[in-house]
Sequence to fold (234 residues):
Amino acid sequence: MKKSIAEFIGTFTLVFIGCGAAVIGGMGAGPTAIDVLGIAFAFGLAIVAMAYGIGPVSGCHVNPAVSFGAFMAGRMSLADLISYAIAQTLGAIAGAAVLYLILSGKASGWTGGLGQNGWGAHYLGEYNVTSAFVFETVATFIFVVCILGVTQEGSPSMLAGLAIGLTLCAIHIVGINVTGVSVNPARSIGPALIGMAKNPAAVGQLWLFIIAPLLGAGVAGVLFRANVLSAKNA
Fold:
């Protein structure tokens, strides 16, 4: 239960801070506006904060794809994978719900944006589904390789949170204009479900942000399980 609570809090924080930066900071003008770099650092720093805040309790996966990668690497049980994924998804939904409540109080109104992921016409850089799928798969693979690598035996564990957060930041710098960057099924599910009334298209595109991250994470996990990327055989 402690691990599930920690994962709930961690994923709530990721969505609230990261997506909040995108839709609250991103909708500003002049000195109140932030750009891609600001949003990228919001996601990355949220992970850094939670890595040190809840990492000692649950490992700070805050992402079903990361948990799936750890499972495929032989580092967690199926039961733990399921409980983590449920807690992460609920945390993301709660984070998006709090954002919805805050944004609903904007006097000039609001379009319904909650940082939903997507692709295609009228979405950011208007990349197609192939570009979106390739980006999410490759980016998640890189992210999970970093996580499994810096948390394996013999790695400098005190720096793990910083390395993971900076990797997520770099991924966002590259990919925000492609998909808004998911690499995390829960992070996509929360805003899509809570914002469904105003942006139903995001729900229809959720399949990509579940399948592609799990595929990328699964490949990374298999490589560690096979000792291809394990420090034991270095």
DSSP finds ten helices and no strands in the chain. The radius of gyration is 17 Å.
